[in-house]
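Supplementary Methods. Inverse-folding protocol.

Structures were first reduced to a discrete structure-token string of length 227. This string, shown here, constituted the complete conditioning input.
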């Protein structure tokens, strides 16, 4: 049910893009991809946003995408209201929505219950796939730049526009928060004598909150259904 609601939220966020052409491109890339490669493509609802570092579970891509869009919207407000600099919000929204969408092609479920690189993902990264498809679709250069630079200094090119910088910072903020929360929850579970790992960010946040309020015993009760 949660996945269905998040997919609906993505659709609502797409509708915030005022430029009809950009809105159509984003919807095509997110909801009706026409790219054909050998092997299975994961659905938007089941794909992770990574295999190890952050959001490395089914539904992780949806969570990360929604979080990045919301962070980018807030950063846009700050840039305009505090720093008096106009932001092209359509570019920000579109870039944030599609920046990781090709991860559906580069990961597959593995026998350990997680995700590993697909045969395609072993040879081509998600960013290269997306930039190639955006070029094929005739996307505006400024939008391609937002996507191409969203890894910041680790990108093929660093952000050169306000919109690209906003999306890059939003992406980093959410991925880094998720990574640190997941690692902290794993550490807490290890100290509680548990061999399990958090299955999602929601569970990881709940573990951290429980540890802060109820200590290790509270975490044990939570894990064993006694909370």
């Amino acid at each position: 049910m949660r996945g269905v609601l998040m997919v609906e939220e993505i659709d609502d966020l797409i509708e915030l893009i005022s430029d009809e052409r950009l809105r159509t491109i984003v919807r095509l890339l997110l909801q009706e991809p026409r790219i054909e490669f050998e092997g299975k493509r994961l659905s938007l609802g089941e794909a992770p946003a990574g295999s190890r570092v952050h959001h490395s579970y089914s539904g992780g891509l949806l969570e990360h995408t929604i979080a990045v869009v919301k962070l980018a919207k807030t950063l846009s407000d700050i840039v305009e209201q505090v720093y008096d600099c106009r932001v092209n919000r359509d570019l920000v929204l579109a870039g944030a929505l599609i920046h990781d969408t090709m991860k559906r092609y580069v990961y597959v479920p593995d026998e350990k219950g997680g995700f590993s690189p697909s045969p395609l993902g072993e040879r081509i990264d998600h960013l290269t796939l997306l930039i190639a498809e955006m070029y094929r679709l005739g996307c505006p250069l400024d939008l391609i730049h937002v996507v191409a630079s969203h890894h910041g200094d680790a990108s093929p090119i660093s952000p050169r526009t306000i919109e690209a910088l906003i999306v890059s910072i939003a992406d980093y903020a959410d991925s880094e928060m998720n990574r640190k929360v997941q690692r902290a929850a794993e550490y807490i579970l290890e100290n509680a004598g548990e061999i399990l790992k958090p299955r999602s960010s929601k569970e990881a946040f709940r573990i951290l909150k429980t540890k802060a309020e109820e200590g290790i015993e509270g975490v044990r009760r939570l894990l064993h259904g006694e909370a």
